[in-house]
Amino acid sequence: MTSARLDTLARLQGAIDRLESGTAETLRRVPLGHAEADSVLHGGLVQGALHEVFCDGHHSAAATGFAAGVARLLADQRYLLWIRQDFSARENGELAMEGFAELGLDPRRLVMVCAHDADSALRAAADALGCNGLGAVITELWGETRSFDQVASRKLTLAAQDSGVTALMLRIAAAPQASTAETRWMVRAAHSPPSEDWGAPVLETSLIRNRHGQTGRWIMEWNCDACQFREPQTHSRPVAAEVADRSVRTSGISAERLLAG
Amino acid sequence: MVAAKRDNALVVVACDARASRGGVLPGMPLATVRAMHPAVDVIDHDPHADSVLLNAIADWCDRFTPLVALDGADGLLLDITGCAHLFGDEARLLDTLIAALTRQGFEVSAAIAGTAVAARALTRGAPRSIVAPGEEARAVAPLHVAALGVDEAIVRGLRRAGLKTIGEVLARQSAELAARFGEGFVAVLRQATGDDDAPISPRRPAPDYLIDKRFPEPIATLEVILPTLLGLAKLLIAAMERSGKGARQLVASFFRSDGAVRRISVETGQPVTRVDVVQRLFAEKLGALADPLDPGFGYDLIRLAASVSVPTSEAQRGFDTNAHQAEDVALLADTLAARLGARRVVRYLPQDTHIPERVALAVPVQHCPPDAGDAPWPARADIPPLRPLRLLQQPEPIEVLAGVPDGPPAQFVWRRVTHRVARAEGPERIAAEWWRAAEPGLTRDYFRIEDESGARFWLYRDGLYNVEVTPQPDGSDPLRWYMHGLFA
């Protein structure tokens, strides 16, 4: 009797979990490359879910870089759809393909959609999330908007779960609100390591919401060659310990840098 | 009566039947008319409104044939080759057209003939006549030469020579006529008699495929319109499939019962061969119209035409997931473009230039060449990014404090916020492309800047110091700085 009851309970629990799509085993997680962050995220960011990236107006480019990097990781060589609100482009500039390519991302796999306002951007996002050919959909909105409420975020979450396409919201100059997002990040630019001249993007990322775990705050650096995040490299030149597994190419750089220095 | 100013005098341009009964003729000075009939109503001539109206009538006439051409300021030419049987025969078509236009309040004269010039002459000289091919010469002979619609100087010249009817002119040697009035007039005569024919130049190119549906009772609700469109799409696509074609552009025309015509077109990147795609695109487009369909009293004719069609190859869908993905994305792009406009769904193609704002060209996905996905972007160098991730739409002027005039900035004010420079790298000099433009602009010295909060900027000084820009004698600073981009 009791075991039958427990059985039923377990079955119901499973059904609820499936409905909430919350069990760790069913979710595909993609590691960011930053060890601490990945351990807090139980292995990485969930594919086919909604993730939000917030920033204030002065750090729009840093947040753009973070969103682009995350999208690249989650999209896994598939097409990336970038939907941006007209006003955001006027305020923060257009996405520049040269810089995009230099981050190690592929402009050929990017389709840009220019939406008049937040409403049409969200509608386009909801449609795009149903398209299996895409890897990720980034929706870039500027400022506070009433149209992205609980209902809209729920809609995007469900669409993302159905198709497995990851939804990323890039919210510039907006304050975080309640939503159904899997994770929510606050991103700002961090200081470059003092010894380096001009390095890869270094970002201060705060995970301020995580549906399935803890939150945290890390400094991450985007590694343009490996297309992953990593801990900031304090030493621009490889130290002795790294010599053992250094690839031919990196030794090339260091030789170049030594020559240049 | 309509009057207009010609050579500084008000002249009658057109008048109605009552006025002509009273002795008024087009071309009379208005003063004369006023002397004859002091109570006459005079309206100012508005050629623009006339042409708008004529175009609206031409739109309406599209229901008879896709080939409708404007003929002067007051005529329309319809090429009804192969269309007459849809209305019974030629006489019924003519009756239908005249009755419908008369019902709308127009005074119409119309005629059918084998050539455009003959039809024009008959319309003016003997309305409602239908002339079988080969009989044009006999039919137009008794008409006045003015009915040919040729230049007024020619008509006047013929009148002076005593030639009043077309028949009299035809009796002369064509060489004489050519010597006096030019080859063009002879060509018009040959066309009037059916010896020669020239195609009309329709207002719109004839679509490759076209299908329409008439309603005895006008329909007005979207619930009926969409299924109708879907039914038409099915027939159209089936017809195109038989000849191995797919549509790149589809135009739906809605003919309102009161004469207004609305055209809505959708475009696709890949040729459409599936009905559900057509339906989805039109549903999107109709839903997104800024100026929604206004059925008024209802539509009595809906037409679907494939204005651009390309051959398709029935390719078997392979297991190549890349091709599937590209296909899905193209479909999505079509849907979004139908709603937002083609220019708003773009891909970037690399350009051979080093001017930062021109490196990437945004091209509508639907107009991308098929190999756009393979266009090579410059290979990434093994160095940190030297170009910003976001580029401002317009470089914005900033106020800069620099140690030396041609050195890196120490502090700058952008959008009323002061940034203290923590790290600067540069200059990277980008010269204008003097070989492209007459006024190429100044050389820019770009600096990569990190401010104290860690935000990174790309800004430039316009012009080489002491070469392109020189300090003013009054000591004012000639250097202008601009913010151009933001680094991640």
TrEMBL record, chain A:
<protein>
    <submittedName>
        <fullName>DNA repair protein</fullName>
    </submittedName>
</protein>
<dbReference type="InterPro" id="IPR027417">
    <property type="entry name" value="P-loop_NTPase"/>
</dbReference>
<dbReference type="InterPro" id="IPR017026">
    <property type="entry name" value="ImuA"/>
</dbReference>
